[in-house]
Specification:
- This protein is of the alpha/beta class.
- The protein folds into two domains: 21-81, 2-Layer Sandwich (Signal recognition particle alu RNA binding heterodimer, srp9/1), CATH 3.30.720; 93-176, Signal recognition particle alu RNA binding heterodimer, srp9/1 (2-Layer Sandwich).
- It has helices at residues 12-15, 35-46, 87-90, 104-114, 152-167, and strands spanning 29-32, 49-55, 61-68, 71-77, 96-100, 117-124, 129-135, 141-147.
- The strands form two sheets. Strands 1-4-3-2 form a four-stranded mixed β-sheet, with helices on one face.
- A hairpin with a 4-residue loop joins strand 6 and strand 7.
- Helix 2 packs antiparallel against helix 4 (104-114).
- The longest helix has 16 residues, at 152-167.
- The protein is globular, with a radius of gyration of 22 Å.
Length: 176
């Protein structure tokens, strides 16, 4: 006699994850002008891996996902009918994406060679990180850093210098 097949009730929510595998709670979604070029830049500058890409018939990126280190970043081209505008359209950016790297000097050199513009030079900062800021060719601002060993005296000297600049309306390390 063949085995009787039984149906078990499946809890639909048990099969679907609230947060997709590989994602974190917060995922940046960048709007750019020139999505394909942006993805190529992020590959060269930050070692990004392309996970997915959906394009429109005209070649514009409707939606793409890249992975930088262990973090996913979503990207789309700017569309006139959308409320999301690229930094190029706004003339500025409203935030900074921060990358921690095990070799920040190497990543910095790759990003600059790929076309990033230095906003704040890479340097050891008073909070104990080697840190700098860049703007990518699409207008998004990035900060790159890694924790470094610094003496208490070095940290205090850099802190005093930075606070003095802030008090004078300046920003430490700003090149513009």
């Amino acid at each position: 006699m063949p085995a009787k097949k039984t149906r078990t009730k499946r809890n639909a929510s048990a099969k679907v994850r609230a947060i997709p595998s590989g994602f974190r709670t917060v995922t940046p979604y960048l709007t750019v002008q020139g999505g394909t070029k942006a993805i190529d830049f992020y590959k060269k500058a930050f070692g990004a891996k392309e996970l997915a890409q959906e394009t429109m018939p005209d070649g514009k990126i409707l939606h793409a996902r890249i992975k930088i280190g262990d973090s996913i970043v979503m990207i789309s081209d700017e569309f006139p009918e959308s409320y999301a505008k690229s930094p190029a359209s706004l003339g500025s950016t409203t935030g900074t994406l921060h990358i921690y790297s095990g070799n920040v000097d190497k990543m910095w050199k790759l990003a600059v060679a790929a076309g990033a513009r230095v906003i704040m030079p890479l340097d050891n900062q008073f909070w104990g990180e080697r840190y700098g800021q860049l703007t990518d060719p699409f207008g998004h601002q990035w900060s790159l850093s890694m924790q470094v060993k610094m003496s208490a005296q070095e940290m205090e000297t850099k802190r005093i210098a930075a606070m003095s600049m802030f008090a004078n309306g300046e920003h430490p390390g700003k090149t513009e």
